[in-house]
């Protein structure tokens, strides 16, 4: 397949769509500050009658995500709603309310449980299932640190619910591991994993249902554009769900592409070909 078009401005492309499902971390902000040109582009799309849903693999409820991006000064006029993998995870937790859970992840993610009134935590020796929202200490740990624990969970045959399928995420100018890296290691050992977020269908279904509520009708899939910076989650998820994708290079793939400003087109094509996934178009950063 030929390389997708490399565009400098999204406006001409956006004219063909009614709904944008935009990734958050890596497109709208980098974990430290809002990416203002991207926010402006989304706001302009909305001003022209479009609907924007922020769709994120953050393992927290949408309300918590909103509080976080408010602190980074992401303007409210850039989006109509937020759908998180934490929301999908919460649905799973509610359905298993009578069971005990072992939580792998930082203390800041406990809100996923507390807001649902879930206090039935248990150690790995006796828990009924596992929810992984991240690493206990993502500043210092790596997935391999979890191999002994995961082997213990595997022996008991526990299901792991992965609240964030991302492998890594930007935090300023560096990358840190996410829940997906731990979950993938567990799966490679033979463990059963339920992935709550992108690239899996439930989060897209929830996002389109919210968009339909805003617009008064369900949008046609060929009028929906996904925007993201990850081949594994954003591009694969969009392709699998049957919607177009605009791929942003100045995100988690920036280093392997040779930098944020001048990505190597040949390396980019190699990544797409290796994944057998192709976007509608490519941009360095989202700009109207």
Blueprint (SSEs and pairs):
Blueprint lengths: L4 E2 L4 H4 L4 E4 L13 H12 L3 E6 L5 H10 L9 E4 H11 L5 E4 L6 H4 L14 E4 L14 H9 L4 E3 L5 E4 L2 E4 L1 H10 L4 E3 L5 H15 L8 E5 L2 H11 L2 E5 L16 H11 L5 E3 L5
Parallel strand pairs: 1-13, 2-3, 2-11, 3-4, 5-6, 6-7, 7-10, 11-12, 12-13
Antiparallel strand pairs: 8-9
Description of the structure:
The protein has 10 helices and 13 strands. It is α/β, with parallel strands linked by helices and 288 residues long. The protein folds into 2 domains: 167 residues, 3-Layer(aba) Sandwich (Rossmann fold), CATH 3.40.50; 109 residues, HAD superfamily/HAD-like (Rossmann fold). The strands form 3 sheets. Strands 1-13-12-11-2-3-4 form a 7-stranded parallel sheet, sandwiched between helices. A 4-stranded parallel sheet has the order 5-6-7-10, covered by helices on one side. It has a two-stranded antiparallel sheet with strand order 8-9. A hairpin with a 2-residue loop joins strand 8 and strand 9. The longest helix is centred in the C-terminal third of the chain and has 15 residues. 43% of the residues are buried. The model has no long low-confidence stretch (mean pLDDT 92).
List keywords for this structure.
288 residues, alpha/beta, Rossmann fold, 2 domains, four-stranded parallel sheet, 10 helices, 34% helix
Spatially, the strands of the biggest sheet line up as 1-13-12-11-2-3-4
CATH superfamily membership of the largest domain: HAD superfamily/HAD-like
The structural domain count equals: 2
Task: Please count the beta strands (DSSP E, at least 2 residues each).
Answer: 13
The arrangement of helices and strands along the chain is: EHEHEHEHEHEHEEEHEHEHEHE
